[in-house]
Design brief:
Elements: H1 2-61, E1 69-74, E2 77-81, H2 88-97, E3 102-106, H3 116-125, E4 126-132, H4 137-146, E5 151-155, H5 158-167, E6 174-177, H6 189-201
Parallel strand pairs: 2-6, 3-4, 3-6, 4-5
Antiparallel strand pairs: 1-2
Helix pairs in contact: 2-3, 5-6
Length: 203
């Protein structure tokens, strides 16, 4: 009798455990399937919040010193100092904010910095490009090949670059100085912005 009882108990316990485990596992799988869309939705929502925060952070700089700062308006042409934009992403954001035809002064010296996104926004917003600094044939050709309708000039110093940009303008144009690179000639963005503003003052 003891052996029979022991055998019966083991049979009952093993089947009960198997039944309990299988049903709970199925319930867990169902919960996981239900939760996956929730997790995906939550992740998507967090990414969207993150994007909005980035845009807001960039927007907070708008109009501050050397960040899309309106310097002067001469004969209907606005001059905007965006010397803080020391990378291509910041330049893209500045160009995206332009609501008038733009003459863009930059210091980009590496053709690899000219991304497809930058090329696209140039085609939409920019009428004239002025490359300021040491002439780089590869950069010039990259701009020219990607934007056949955009006029391109190269000037060594800031005064000549600003003057050339002004001469290339029509009424209601914007001259935007947005360098797109870090330290040129060991100058900080503040020093470069001040040089741009001084050049505008000399027109």
């Amino acid at each position: 009798k003891t052996a029979f009882f022991y055998t019966f108990f083991n049979y009952f316990w093993n089947n009960f455990c198997c039944f309990f485990y299988c049903n709970n596992f199925k319930a867990f799988e169902a919960d996981r399937e239900r939760s996956n869309p929730m997790v995906a939705a939550l992740a998507s929502h967090l990414v969207e919040i993150r994007k909005k925060n980035i845009v807001k952070s960039l927007s907070d700089y708008h109009g501050s010193e050397h960040s899309q700062q309106l310097v002067k308006c001469i004969n209907g042409v606005e001059f905007v100092d965006d010397a803080r934009s020391t990378n291509v992403t910041s330049v893209w954001f500045a160009l995206e904010n332009m609501t008038k035809p733009c003459v863009w002064i930059n210091n980009i010296n590496n053709p690899e910095d000219i991304t497809e996104d930058l090329i696209k926004i140039i085609s939409q917003k920019v009428k004239v490009i002025v490359m300021q600094g040491v002439y780089n044939t590869e950069v010039f050709n990259r701009f020219a090949e990607a934007n056949a309708d955009v006029r391109i000039f190269a000037e060594m110093n800031m005064e000549d670059a600003v003057r050339q940009a002004f001469y290339a303008c029509e009424k209601n144009y914007v001259v935007l100085y947005s360098p797109g690179v870090h330290g040129i000639d060991h100058l900080s963005y503040r020093e470069r912005g001040e040089k741009f503003q001084d050049a505008v003052a000399q027109l």
